[in-house]
Amino acid sequence: KQEVTQIPAALSVPEGENLVLNCSFTDSAIYNLQWFRQDPGKGLTSLLLIQSSQREQTSGRLNASLDKSSGRSTLYIAASQPGDSATYLCAAPSGNTGKLIFGQGTTLQVKP
Amino acid sequence: NAGVTQTPKFQVLKTGQSMTLQCAQDMNHEYMSWYRQDPGMGLRLIHYSVGAGITDQGEVPNGYNVSRSTTEDFPLRLLSAAPSQTSVYFCASSFSGTATYNEQFFGPGTRLTVL
């Protein structure tokens, strides 16, 4: 059974810093992993979907990596800005289905 | 495209009342699902559908009903609301019910309080 963990639960960094958010999963037979952003009181916005055949996926200042053998995915945010402050969630499908298993999220605060 | 839409945005119910949370998508997606988000519990799957006329239970289905008569709509019904159903409800959709190359899109959520 797939389980997804995100540590730390909260992170505070000064503006301009490069940072890495971590996501761990237990089933290495993973089909893909999706990263979301959630602003307070809002829905989930899809940031990146990285397939099992890919090692990295990039969108602007965001770069997601996937290492199936170690059961880890990372979301790298370059040159962080106060507008990046939000909760970041990772999710993996349960087997080859659309059912997503979510981590608890990392709440990021970028201080000006 | 409007993407995934949900109504209402907020709702307050009394214990025992029933209501329907609406969800619609205009992307011609086959797969739709409902999650609830609670502090400390994260997001948990309630029900899902792999196509019109086909629904199945997720992790926490008790107290909820769904039906899928069209590709576009996937309403969630609370039969007899209980305080334990106070939560934020999210609807999601994706192209198919398999994982491969299957990005999921979420609606803005419905914030439900049961008194």
What does this structure look like?
The complex is a heterodimer of chains A (112) and B (115). In chain A, strands 2, 4, 5, 9, 10 and 11 form a six-stranded mixed beta sheet that branches. The termini of chain A are far apart. With 112 residues, chain A is mainly beta. Chain A contains no helices and eleven strands. In chain B, the strands form two sheets. In chain B, strands 2, 4, 5, 6, 9, 10 and 11 form a seven-stranded mixed beta sheet that branches. Chain B has a four-stranded antiparallel beta sheet with strand order 1-3-8-7, with no helix packed on it. Chain B has strands spanning 4-7, 10-13, 19-25, 31-38, 42-51, 54-57, 64-66, 76-78, 87-94, 105-106, 110-114. Chain B is globular and about 40 Å long. Chain B is built from no helices and eleven strands. The A-B interface holds A 31-32, 34, 36, 41-46, 49, 51, 89, 91, 93, 95-100, 102-105 and B 31, 33, 35, 42-43, 45, 48, 50, 58, 90, 92, 94, 96-109, 111.
Salient structural properties:
heterodimer; A: 112 residues; six-stranded mixed β-sheet; five-stranded antiparallel β-sheet; 55% strand; B: mainly beta; seven-stranded mixed β-sheet; four-stranded antiparallel β-sheet; 11 strands; 0% helix
